[in-house]
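FAQ: What does a multi-protein file look like?

Like this. Sequence, then tokens, then the next protein.
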Amino acid sequence: MNKKILMTGNEAFAKGALDAGCRFYAGYPITPQNELPAYMALNMPEAGGVFIQAESEISAVNMVFGASAAGVRSMTSSSSPGISLKQEGISYLAGAELPSVIINVMRAGPGLGNIWPSQSDYFQATRSAGHGDSHCIVLAPSTVQESYDIMFLAFDLADKYRNPVMILGDGLLGQMMEPVLFTNHQLSVAAGGPATGDQKPETKLWALTGCKGRKRNIAKSFYLREGDLEKLNILLQKKYQEIQEKEERFEGVNLDNAELVLVGYGTMARIAKSAMQRLREENYNIGLIRPITLWPFPKKVFERYATGDKRLIFLAVEMSYGQMVDDVKLSLNGRFPVDFIGRSGGGVVSEEDIIAKVKGLLSTKKRNE
């Protein structure tokens, strides 16, 4: 009989990673994600893996580079200022095409800020998370259960595309406790799952596992010969285009008859969903789009529901002063009005804030019709 276990979002991230085959973790303590490395320190040795508390965030991400180059499912985590320090290493991972998972349990900024929740690292994550023309795949869970489940997807996508995957949580999600059911996920071959057909247990032919009997592999992001780096960048752009075409993910609720659509991710999507339900009880036709992939942003859903003569309003809800709202506007390409409500510095938009904003927008729309 499957049992639900009460745990924090941070612990769910760690448990999900272990169950998904992560066998190397390096990190450095920073609030509000410390339960994650604490769980890893306690449970990674039992899983037969390696846990290292590095001397700095910079050291941690470069240790992940080394472990990933050896073919091991590898991960690091931090919170906003720590992720800033990791950005050079994340760019190295992207340039060397090394799969890895990076978790950011966001806190308020800028600077050291405070330990309260925020979503103000959206630009940092989705606009490359490092220097150069690179991208992380960016995933955003909204529940503790999803924080566990999404780890399987994160490692599979990292291996499939040989690319860093970043998971954006926040201090609320990391610290809240909810029951988690450890469902039976099918592990990929790369994680030690069963091989079928022409698959082989060792599929990472690029890994630095010793070159006896084959041409040697090299993991690097440093190209000095003229033209070589441009060739790499062309290949990377083709890969990013494939990711954009194939890996958009979202949750859509009550979209078919909506006159106003809320857009939120992570913790704010939960609050937006509650506000939507209360508004529908008052006979307002409100829908919700929750992006699960922040990069690639799920543009197709906006194109699908933003067609025809019906005039929709979109309202982006964020714990920032407006970052995801840019992607909503770009996805709609000026066809529909996009409004915004947000707070930052540790402030959280409430259901009441959203409800008041929605009623004001719909009232203005009605007067102008």
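And here is the next protein:
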Amino acid sequence: MSKFIQELTGARKAAGLSQDAEASKAGLNRMTIQKLEAETIDPKLSTLEVLAKVLGMEIMLVPRALRPDLEDFVRSGGRYLGQPAGVDAPTSVVDDLLRQPPESLGTHKRPKGR
């Protein structure tokens, strides 16, 4: 739980929100945020969901066995989605999008060859 709370706290700070502002947006008491971040309370999942939503985040429950693969995928920026590793591996969707001119990315068209 500690890492999760640290992530929420970091997201709050990155958003430039005080504990009071976050509590107000979430419909909670500032003391709840303070105790949560100090890890002196064991929050309900519903409280964590509300706080995540206020911070533009989603809580995603992942089977423990899949977590390492999911973390690798997120760190890679999606480059390893269903493709073999190695020099001969096909390019990823991310690589295809990065090769397109920036002005074409807002048109919601598929990359050529897809």
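Q: Is there any per-entry metadata?
A: Some entries carry free-text notes. For the entry above: The CA atoms of residues 44 and 50 lie 10 Å apart.
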